[in-house]
Structure formats: C-alpha cells, structure tokens
Amino acid sequence: MIKVSNIERFATHDGPGIRTTVFLKGCPLHCPWCANPETWSVKPVLMHDERKCVRCHSCQMTCKEEAISFDPVFHLDVSKCTVCGRCVEVCLPDALSVNGKDMSIDEIISEIRKDDDYYRNSNGGVTLSGGEPLFQFEQSLKLLKELKKNGYHTALETTGMYSLDKLKRAEEHVDLFLFDFKHPDPDRLREVTGGDYETIVTNLEYLLEKCPDKVILRTPVIRDFNRDEVEKIIRWAAERKVREIDLLPYHSLGKNKWNDLGREYPYEGYPLMDKSELNEYKALGESLGIKVKIGG
Amino acid sequence: MIISKVDGEQNVEVSVKLPSEKTPLQQLEIMEAYTRAYQNSQGLDKAFREVNCLKVIFPTLFRSINDEDLIAGRLDFLPIGFGSVTSIGGVGHYCVFNKLREFKDQLDNEEDKKRVDALYQYWMDKDVKAIYCRDVLNDTTTGRFIDCKYPYMATARLSGMMLDYNKLLRLGVSGIIELLQSKPQNDFIRASIEAMKLFKTVIDHQIKLVDDKLDKLTDRQKIKDFTLMKEDLIFIKENKPETFHQALQLFWLYALCAGCINYGRMDVVLGPYLYNDIKKGIIDEDEAYRYVISLWWLIENRRTTVNGRIIVGGQGRDNVEACDLFAKICLRVCRDIRYVEPQFTFRFDKTTDPVLKDMAYECIASGATYPTLYNDDVNVPAVMRAMRVDRKTAEQYVPFGCGEFVIQGKSVGTPNTLLNLLKIMQISMNEGVDPMDGIYKGDGVTLKPLSEINSFEELYGQYNRLLDHYMDLSVRDQKYSYEVMNKEASFLFTSILMDDCIERGRALLDGGVEILGGTNETYGNINTSDAFYAIKTLVYDQKKYTLSQLNEACLKDYKGYEKIQKDLINVPKYGNDHHDCDEMANMMYEYVAKGIRQRGIEAGLGYYLIVISNNQTNTDWGLQTAASLDGRNSKVYMNPANNPQGGAAKSGPTAVLNSISRFDAGYHGGSVQNIKFTPRMMHEDKEKVKALFKTYFEKGGCQLMVTVVDHGVLEDAQKHPEKYPDLIVRVAGYSAIFVNLSRDIQNELLSRTLYD
After folding, report:
1. CA angle (B724, B725, B729) in 5-degree steps
2. Cα distance from A206 to chain B (closest Cα, Å)?
3. Considering B625, B640, B655, which residue would you say is the last residue of a domain?
4. Is B249 contained in some domain?
5. Do A121 and B658 touch (CB under 8 A)?
6. Which residues pair with B348 in a beta bridge?
7. End-to-end CA distance of chain A, in Å?
8. What's the pLDDT band for B1 if we cut at 50, 70, 90?
9. pLDDT of residue A249
C-alpha cells in the first residue's frame, strides 16, 4: 500500500499532454510557499475549513481523544488526534476532512487507466508528485515500474532530496524529471526549505550526465527568497546544459490548505506574481541556449 | 373551456422581441381582418381558409427594410395570426391570449379595448393550441407547456421544421408553381398554388420597400446594395436564382413566409452559389462575408431565443469544396460577431478539413459559445438506428431548437411532450402523491407503499410502472397533436418544401410528410438515476438506512435530517466516471429511450424519440419539484440536459466526458452536453483541450457545447450586470446574454464546474 494525498485527472501543469497526477504523501522539505502542505506528513492529516464551519461543536462532542476545542474558533491538538475520522462523519457542512489514504498499486493503476485514450491522443501520461514522490521510496518505485510495464509515459515532480542510490534505481522507470531547483545558495536553501544543496545538486548532475533530455528544471519564483536569483539560476542551468527551465511565478493557491491545517500561511498578504513579470528571462534563455518557459 | 389552463408563458423567451412597426390601431385592424377572413372561409377546405388568412398578413406584416440590410425581409407577427411555432406567435391559426391582453393594455380607447375582447372571446375555442389543450390537459397528470406543476407537459406546435430549400432554389418560384400545376389538382394543391402566388406578391412588396429606401439613400455603397437587392428581387420573382445573393434572398423570404425559425444546412443550400460566384468573379469572399453578416443580423432580430439553427459541415454533402467555402465564411462571421442567434452549428467527422476544425475551435475559445459541435461519426449511424432510416437519409439529420434531430426536408420531429422523470419517481414512491403539492398524480397506476417494498428491484419496478403509464400518455398525446393541427391547418408553405407532400397531393400532417416523427423531452434524468443509486447504496448495499427513513427525510426537505442528506450527497454521482453509478444512469436512460422509441413504432409514427436536450426547463421544472434522494433540496434546479447535477462533477473534464459518452446514441433523437472552460485553458492549453475533445468524440461523444468564461466573471456579472452587456453563455439548447437570464437560471449556470 502507498499513501496517497490525491489523484488529479486532466492535470495540465505537470508534464506534456493530458496527464493524471498522483500526489503522494511525505516530503523532506518544508517550503513556506508550498501549495500542498497536507502532503508533508506521510500520515493522514485532519483538515478543517473555517469558512464552512458553523461551530456546532458536533466534532468536539464526538471526539474521544478530546483533541478538538473551540476558543471560539476550531482548534485541533495534533498530538492527541488519531485521525480516526469520526469527526468528519458528523460534520454536516463538510468543514472537516482527512487527507491521505492507503491505496494499492492496482487501485491507483485502475484509476489511471480511465484516461488511457486521452493520454494516447495527447502524448500524455502519468506524473508522480507530492510531497516528494520518492519519499515512500520502495512503494513509489513499485508504482513507477508498474506504470512503465503498462506503457505509460512517466514524469516525476521531484525535490531531488534523497540519496543518489535511490535515484539510480528509479531513473530508468522515469521518462521525465521535473526537477526543482530553488536556490543557488546552500545556506539560504537549507534555512528556508530544509533542503540540502549538496544532495540535490549531486542528483541533478547525475541526471544531467546520464539522461539530459529527461530533465526539465523548475524554479518557483518567490519574492524575498529567490526573485533576485533568477538570472543566476538560469545561467547556472545553462552552464550545465539543462535544455529547459520552467519559472513558476508565485501563487497563493495553497493558502487555504495552510489554514485548514491550523498553520499560519507564511506568505499571507503577499501579492500574486504576474506571469509577465518573468517574460524578460525568455530572451536571456535564448541567448544562453536554454529554453525558459513561464509557468509549468 | 378553462382558459387559464392554456393561457400563460408558452415558450422560453429570454431575448426581447422587437415591437411591431404598425401602430396599435393598425395591428388591431389586421387582427380583425384576419379573424374575418377566417370566419368568411367557413365551408371552404382548411387549405383555402389558410391561404385566405395568409393573404391578410402577407405582405402587410412585412416591416420596412433596415438601412444596413443587404437582404430584404423583416417580418412582424401579432397576437393573432398564422404560424408554426410558439416562439413567433403560435401554431396554425393562433391567438396568444396573454400577448393579446398585453396588447389591449396599449390601447387607450374603451371602444377599441372592447374590440380586443371580442377577438379574445372568438379565438378562445378556435386557437389550435387551445383546442388541443382543451382535450389533453387535466388537473393531475398533464400540464400546459410551460406549467411545471405537472410531471408531464404536452403541447401542440410544429417546431423545428427545416425545409428543402434546395428544391426551391433549383426550381424557382415559377418552377414550383409549374410543378404544382402538373399534379392532379385537389384543394391542397390548388391552395398551394395560391400560396406561391401570394409569395410573388410578397416579393413585389419587397421591391416596393426597396424603392422607398432608394428614394431616401444618398450613400453610394448603400445605393449600390439596394439596387442589387431590387434587381435580384425582380429576378427571383420569375426566375431560378443564379447568384449567391439571389439564392440567399429567395431562401430568406420563403423561410419567413413558412414561419420557419431553424434554417438547417445552409452550406449545402448556398455553398454552390457562392462557389460559382467567386469562381466567376461576381463577388469575392469579403462581399460574401458582408451578406452572411446581414443574414446573421436578420436572424438575430427575429429573437427566437432557442432556435435560429444554421448548420454547416458533416456527411452527406455533394459539393464539399463549395460547402466548406461557405462554412469558412460563416466561421469568420461567428468569430467576429457576438449574437445569441443564429445557433451556429458545426457538423464534422474524422475526414473534416482540419482548417475548419481549427477555425471552429478559435470561435469557441474566443467565447462565442458557437459553433456547437456535432460528431457525424456517431450521429449518422445513431440516427439510422434511432429513426430506422438508411444512411443517405440519416446523413441529412439536423439539430433544431435545443438539440432535437429532424431530417431536413423529410421529417417532422416536434417535441410536443415532456416528462419530468424525477417527479415521476417521487410520485411512484409516495403512492401516487406528488410531495411538492400533495396532489394525487398516480392516474390509477397501482403503487405500493414503501413499507411493502422489499427490494431495490421492486422499487425500481414500481417507478418503471408509473413511467410506462406516462410514456403511454406521451405517445397518445404526441399523435393527437398532429391530428388537431392537421384538422385545423395545412401548413402550406411548409408542405410545399417537404417531401413528399406535393407528390402525394397531401398536406404535411395529412399524410404528406415522408417521415412523421416526434420527440419527447425528458428532464431530471440524472437526478433520478443518482437518487436510485443512492438508495441502492445506502439502503440495500450498506443497509445504513431504511427506504422509509430516507423518504421521510426527503419529504421534510432534509430539515432535521441533515446527516442523511450529507450521506446521500456523498454517494458517488454521475459525472465522475464511476462505473456503477454511470451504469445506473445508462440503465435508466435505456429504459426510457427504448420505451418511448418502441411506443412510437407501435403507434405507427416514423419515429418517436426522447431528447435529452434542455432549454431552461431543468431549472423551471426543478423549482416546482420536491427534494430528491440524490440529496437535492426542494425547489432547486435539476441537472441540465445530459450533464451531471451542478456541483456533482468533481473529477475533472475527462471524467465527466467519460460519463457522458457512455449512452448509446442510437436510441435518442438528440442529446446535448455542456462544458465550461476558462479562457486561459482554451488558449494556453489549446492542444490539450483539442486532444480532450478529440478523445471524447472518439469514445462516442455525440455533441458538445462550450462556454468560455473566466473565474468570478459570472459572479461579478450577477452583482454588476451593467458591466456585462455582451457576456454570452451557453444555457443548454440556447445561448443567452447572461445578465438577461433570471436569477435561478444564472445560479444553475454558476453551479456547473468550471475547468481551468
């Protein structure tokens, strides 16, 4: 069984063609702009949408662990919550939900299979994302092998934060790496995201050496973090013969999820980044022989 | 005669009609003259009575030509007159009573008002629809279209007639007269000749109207345009049309006189003329573009809301190159012009020129809501089976109105019966009583109380028993609508251009038309199947509730039973590619589709088929339908056409299209599907959306219509309607300016999933 956060059909941002993206649970990083913070923990998590809550206290009354309180808004004591799901059952306005479920490889494949005709007509396929899709490594590897066995084009949306050994085992089952490269400064990367520059770059360089055509670099562009580093990143990538880099302008689509997890959204009040702000880098890319795309 | 039963709203009317050009007093005089002609024709054959009456309204009711028109022909209609469809007046000799009352309010003089009263009284038992309604409607089962208290509505109308204009253009007016003269003479044929002579008078009148304009015009281009108009009117009065403009002019005037508001395969009719003109250098494509824009405007100005079909592309076209040339010009016009009519429709198959397909995509992506897409690879074989016709005939299928099929020039397919499947389900579960109003509508069908029902099959069987009864009523009343209409009128102009009236010497509904078909609009299809699936899951599979518990909660509109409602809503729903749930929808679709089709065959109709089309009746009827066991609350819209209930589709567009393409098109007479995308997706993910459409059509998708609108735009338009005068949305079988729709309809549109 593998722990799945969500399966999204007709995913159009995660690789070529029409795809199904399987969001897997678990992530070694903790990027403060993360759009999927519910995937950080490999375990199921309880989420509470304050906008839907009518404060009927049904959840509180049903919780045997006394993990829920109101002061006056909903509060969850994560240390007590066993994610039993009883509170979700009784929540009439659907303010409560559990993210994360165990699925067998067969179950996942049968869901993916539903859109086979669409992949075929669009040169699409399946993307594993997360979280870090290789976090549950042995299971993810099984899934990748099964996907390849069934003839799917596979893409991996990855942080690169795992041992080289794992990558070597997974590489042959992946057709496309959407490889995150967030910051050129190791200290800043560790401080903000928890990522280890050395590990990530070692993995990236391995791929660029072994299968450069299978790599697209992805950089989420975040004000106050790497906005001023974009040019440097592009140059860095061009030097290493990366063929394409996708600049992903900051968006706030993850905000509600942070709130639903009872966490403060670190980018509260930050303006969305307009795509056009990054257009200038297309020309830079052209001059350096690397394709720069704005958006995924 | 209980006038209240037949009085009131009789069709979906979103677009506001242009007021008549005549003064109220002139209008009154015309209506009185029409009535006298009707009275004075007593003792004559209905065909002669018809032509006598037509002589009162033609050419009188033609209004002046607009300065910008490039084709002559604008026609008013009055609350009393002759017609085919309720969108412009009524059927046969009609009186639209509520419109007549509104008309009366425009008059100041008491004496004049009394004259209106006299007309009102006179027509109460002569209006064709009133005659039908008097015989068919009752207080329990059968309501007027549109009176949503009933599970079943029936009406008399002759909707969707699409004529064989090729015949008209091939023979010309004089040629048609000669053809009629060559046949054995009877009242129908003689009256038809009179009608064609009247048509010549109409042309003469247009020439006079053009002359009036020419006297006043100073602009050189306009003088040129009107001079051409005059020359071509003079020419087509006696001769077969030779040019594109002449062909267009003749077709248009005839469609007006026949009361037709759907036009059909105009590429087949006009393409060859256009092709020849361009080849000979008579006009260029830009000039043709101007004419087509003018046609678009004339159609828009008729304001029929749910009609105005112009169809291009597809199988069964002799001169594909010429047809495609016309189609391309229409696609250019469609891209450039934002009108809600014509309902521009694109038929295609695997062999269609990719350039045309791309042009169609660009129109849709630009937010035009047009063209609507019809897949001939599915529809032609489906029509062959559904209507039991050969391929050559099936290739001439055309969707009209909200999506019902007819065979152009060969079949009648008017939807004169409508079923609310969800209401029928509720009545079947409550011993014949409609929970909405507590009125018994079981019509004598044996229906057990739920306490005596022991299995899902028994429950479903009971629903089918009541549905069988309503299907029996439907086919009886559909047939009867033809009998009543035939007794009262010959529909001469329509008959003349429909196979095989002239050869048989018989009027359209008098044995003249080659295929006398018909359609039955079904509503609430998906709510009903979702409700049955929820019952099966919660009562019989999971045994979480009893049937009576669920029904009790439903009867209380879930007040105090919110947990049950939540559980019902959480059962998988159609539109998410869920195998068992979609199978339930398919099983129920096949039951009603085959049930109606078989009844049609047994009743001797050419065909009688369900259509899963939609105008806004899913909302109007939903507002008078009690809470349902799919978790839907009372007085809430029902699902639109073949789509999931608003908000139920949560698995993306591939899932919804997979669910939708599951039904076998070979048993229905038209089924429509809506989908909503953002402009971002249509433009940035163009290739992916194209692949999505392509796959859907390969999987058996028969039709698709696409609204392109951005996040929050519809919401903002509700708050600030003044900012969105041109925002066009696809309701289902028609497009409309969003802000002109009622709040309930707007809300239903908002509930549909927007893909980004």
Report:
1. 75
2. 32
3. B640
4. yes
5. no
6. B375
7. 30
8. very low
9. 95
Domains of chain A, start order: 2-41+101-294 (3.20.20.70), 45-99 (3.30.70.20)
Residue B3 has pLDDT above 70, yes or no: no
pLDDT digit string (tens) for A209-256? 999 999 999 999 999 999 999 999 999 999 999 999 999 999 988 899
- End-of-domain residue from the set B198, B227, B259: B259
Of B562, B658, B687, which has the smallest distance from its Cβ to A114's Cβ? B658
**What phi and psi values does residue B733 have, to the nearest 5 degrees?**
-80, 10
Buried b (16+ CB within 10 A) or exposed e, B218-240: eeeebeebbebbbebbebbbeeb
Cα-flanking dihedrals φ and ψ of residue A7, to 5°?
A: -120, 120
| Binary contact (B563, A115; C-beta < 8 A) | no
How many independent structural domains does chain B possess? 2
Chain B residues near any Cβ of chain A (below 8 Å): 562-563, 566, 577, 651-655, 658, 681, 684-685, 687-688, 691-692, 694-695, 698-699, 755
Give chain B's radius of gyration (CA, Å): 26
Could you tell me the pLDDT band of residue B305, with boundaries at 50, 70 and 90? confident
Is the per-residue pLDDT at A296 higher than 80?
no
Residue identified by tokens 């999927």 is A36
Q: Chain B: nearest CA to A18, how far in angstroms?
A: 6
Of A90, A118, A295, the CB nearest to B695: A118
Cα distance from N-terminal residue to C-terminal residue, chain B:
55
Test the B interface: residue of A97, A117, A123 with most B CBs within 10 Å: A117
Return mean pLDDT, chain B. Answer: 96
The per-residue pLDDT for B6 is: 63
In a domain, residue B694? The reply is: no
Among B651, B652, B698, beta carbon nearest to A117: B698
ipTM value for the complex: 0.95
